[in-house]
């Protein structure tokens, strides 16, 4: 009796084990350990590319205003002095204004050696150091007919002045003299002489600078 019961129990255990076992050839799931799960690398992050900024259109160069050229002067200007002058002697400068206008013109003599020295119209330096003007400064009203000088085509107006009357030449050295003035007015019709201050039309002059050696006695 006992032998029969033992056989039945053994048979039941065997059948239960067979029911739990997976069929032959079926895949067996292996549980993953926590360590293997954490060691797996996450998929690489994909960064969104920033949209490219379109290039700015190049700016067109700004046109620069063109300076109007100064009117050509119909005059030729020249200044001359002796190349060497002793201290205490007059510093005589000879001024020549030659007209290349096609017809007779009438020149206002103001602020040129044609009327003497009436303003700071020369730049003078001694050994590179500028010398200040120390002469008269004339205030003007409207010019009169005598303020003008007439000159024919190809002819010249000339005058002499002593620069030592308005500039310090009391020291020996090398002096450089430049005339910086201009013709304050030029009239082509004698009937229009004189003109008023608001009608004056200056004409540029270009005189080449000169050098003079002032020597001790």
Please tell me about this protein's structure:
By secondary structure, this protein is of the alpha+beta class. It has a domain at 75-215: Immunoglobulin-like (Sandwich). It is built from two helices and eleven strands. The strands form three sheets. A five-stranded mixed sheet has the order 2-11-9-5-6, with no helix packed on it. It has a three-stranded antiparallel sheet with strand order 1-3-8, with no helix packed on it. A hairpin with a 2-residue loop joins strand 5 and strand 6 (129-131). Mean pLDDT is 80; it is low at 1-23, 25-51, 57-63 and 65-70.
Supply the key terms.
217 residues, alpha+beta, Immunoglobulin-like, 5-stranded mixed β-sheet, 2 helices, 12% helix
How is the topology of this model organized?
Blueprint: H1 2-20, H2 34-39, E1 75-80, E2 84-86, E3 92-99, E4 105-108, E5 122-126, E6 129-131, E7 148-151, E8 156-162, E9 173-179, E10 186-187, E11 210-215
Parallel strand pairs: 2-11
Antiparallel strand pairs: 1-3, 3-8, 4-7, 4-10, 5-6, 5-9, 9-11
């Amino acid at each position: 009796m006992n032998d029969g019961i033992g056989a039945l129990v053994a048979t039941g255990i065997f059948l239960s084990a067979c029911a739990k076992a997976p069929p032959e050839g079926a895949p067996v799931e292996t549980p993953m350990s926590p360590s293997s799960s954490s060691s797996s690398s996450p998929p690489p992050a994909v960064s969104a590319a920033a949209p490219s900024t379109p290039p700015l259109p190049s700016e067109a160069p700004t046109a620069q205003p063109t300076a109007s050229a100064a009117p050509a002067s119909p005059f030729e200007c020249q200044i001359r002095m002796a190349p060497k002058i002793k201290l205490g002697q007059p510093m005589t400068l000879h001024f020549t204004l030659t007209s290349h206008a096609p017809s007779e013109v009438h020149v206002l003599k103001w602020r040129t050696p044609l009327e003497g020295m009436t303003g700071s119209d020369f730049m003078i330096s001694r050994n590179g150091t500028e010398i200040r003007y120390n002469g008269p400064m004339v205030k003007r009203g409207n010019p009169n007919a005598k303020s003008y000088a007439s000159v024919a085509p190809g002819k010249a107006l000339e005058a002499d002045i002593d620069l030592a009357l308005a500039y310090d030449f009391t020291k020996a050295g090398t002096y450089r003299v430049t005339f910086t003035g201009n013709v304050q007015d030029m009239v082509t019709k004698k009937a229009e002489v004189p003109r008023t201050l608001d009608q004056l039309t200056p004409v540029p002059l270009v005189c080449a600078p000169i050098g003079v050696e002032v020597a001790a006695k």
